[in-house]
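The instructor's notes for this session suggest beginning with a concrete chain rather than abstract definitions. Hand out the sequence below and ask the class to guess, before any prediction is shown, which regions might be ordered.
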Amino acid sequence: MTEGQRLSFAYKHLKEIPEKSLKNSIDKLIHLDLSHNKISDLRALVRLKKLRILILDHNRINSQIQFPNHAILDTLWVNHNEIENLSIFIEKIAKALPNLKYLSMMNNRAAPSYFNGGTLSEYTDYRQYTISHLPKLLALDDITITNEERSKAEQIYGKIRFDGSKNKATSYSDN
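After discussion, reveal the predicted structure:
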C-alpha cells in the first residue's frame, strides 16, 4: 500500500492508527490517507514530522480531537466526521497546525452548507470564522479563498481571541 512517501490505510475498518505499520515510514511519510475507518485518536501521528497531507474523511473525528503539533502539515481533510463545535475544533487546529493551507470539513455539523441543511447565512459565517482563525489558509472545502473574502472575515472576526474558558471567546474593541 505504499507509494514512496505516500501511505494509505483507507477502508481498513481501523479503530486506531496502526503504529507498527508506520514504523518504517516515520522519516519519509508525507501523505497519509486514513479515510473510511473508525479512527478517533490521532496520538500515533506525533512522530510523523514530515507529514504534509492528512486525509481523515469518514472517521469518528470530533470537535475535541487532539491534533499533535505539526508545523509543516498543510493539508487536512476531515469530511464526513462528527465535528459539531466549530470554535473548539478551529482553535485546536489553529494551535497544532499553524501552516495549514487547505482544509476540507464538508458534511460535518460544524460546517453548515446547503447539502447538510445549513442556510447561506450559516455557511457564510462558517467560512468567515474559519478563514479569520487560520491566516495561512488558501482553500476551504475545495473553494479558493479570495482576498475580498479574507478581508471580510477579518472585519467580522479579526478582533476575537479565545480567553481560555470553555466554549467562550472574548471580543476586543479598538480603544
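Then share the key points. The first strand starts at residue 2 and ends at 3. Residues 159-175 have pLDDT under 50 and may be disordered.
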